[in-house]
Design goal:
disordered C terminus; two-stranded antiparallel ribbon; 6 strands; single chain; two-stranded antiparallel sheet; about 325 residues; about 55% helix
Length: about 325
Amino acid sequence: MVNLLDNKSIRRNVLLIGILGIFVANVFSQEGATAIVGQSSKTCTGEKFVLPTSIASNSDGIIKYLQLISASTEERSGLFRSLSNEDKSLIVRLQYAMQIAKRQNLSKEQSALLLEAINKVSADTFDKTDPEKIRISNVWAQELELKGLALFSRKEAFEIFGGLHINRSDEIRMLTAYMNLLVNGMMKRRQLIHEWPDSERIMIWKTQLAFHLAASSLKNEQRQFIVDMIPKIGPTFEVSRTLKNEEREAFARSLEKDIFSVFTKQEGYAIFMEIGIQQKVEDGLETANLYPRDCGCRWYCSSENESCGGSCRVVSYCGPFDDWDCTGYCRVL
């Protein structure tokens, strides 16, 4: 087999194809559930959670990316060409974000390069009608090639940036598990994920963070926070298992404080505290009478330990990664 990265000109063409011409898919719909995409809102005693406009409000990018990487290599180029430039840029950003989620031991420099790529990819990257945009994209692609080969082995660089002809089985497994969870309602998602081993829960949360890293309209500081948080999810779970109840609560509050120092409460909740809030599913379990208006419910686990009162819903878990005891307190789900 010819080593595609041995020859400089071929190597550049491969990476240019990977960066500028890879992903695509036709949207496929999920069966058996009604997905309500857009502004998610619930109310209890006047306090409302509204999904911020900065947070991606649907999972189309995941659906399109999954459709692409599940297709044969012969079909992928044609599928990619059928996408809008905006869709192409979203899919490529998701590809890079998933590399951060799936690779366990990225160095700080490697993570920084992937974040740089996520920040730079836009619809303009794929605009073939403007000569200046084409020139800028080609220059950036060559710079990314050089940086990638300096920080990764040739094999790794091809796997990360080569795109079209790479086996993406890890991404398929991670994203399929995530999307399968989203066909359930919020309460069912929580029930299911708490029955899974930590390894599966960690995979789900890494996938969610990668999705928001790629799809949400975040500030650079917020994206950097997510990049730094992804490898900490596993150790966070491990630490929490060794702590006593009071220590667990203090640990959770500290983590929550760090999140809210960078994100608004609504953003922090949507990204770090509720699985798949960008896709609300009606499954018959969540109806208006489950959210009474005569008590002090909050949409997140109150740091003031607000009492639920007699009629509000009590939840067992809340907080970062939905992993912290919250019995006796309530929030809108």
